[in-house]
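re: ur msg from earlier - yeah i can do the copper (II) ion complex, just paste it... oh wait u already did. ok heres what im feeding in:
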Amino acid sequence: MKLKTIITLLMVLLLTGITALSVSAARQTHHGIGTVTAIDNKAKKIELKHGPIKSIGWMGMKMFFAVEDAELLDEVEVGDKVDFDFIETRDKRYVITDIEAQ
Ligand SMILES: [Cu+2]
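and the outut:
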C-alpha cells in the first residue's frame, strides 16, 4: 500500500472512533434522586432539588429539567421525593426520560 492510502485509512478509522464515542456520550443516561419543587405543564418542564450526581459531575442543586414525554409530569406532584433518569443533549439540555415517586 502507498503511504497516502495508509494515512487515509488511519484517518477514517480515527474519525469513526470519535463519532462512536460522541454518540455514546450523548446517549448516556444519568440517574438522580431529588424532590419536586415545581411543575410547568405548559413548558414541559419540571424543577427538582436534586442530590449530587457523580456520573455528570454535579453537586446537589435546584434546577429545571425538560421532559421527553409530557405524560411523565402526571406521575409526580410538587413535594414528591423522586428517582429520575435523564440525558444531556448535544446542545446541553437536560431531558428527563423517566421519573418515579419514591
Ligand atoms: Cu443540577
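cool cool. Residues 29-101 form a domain with the OB fold (Dihydrolipoamide Acetyltransferase, E2P) fold (CATH 2.40.50.320). ping me if u need the other ligands too
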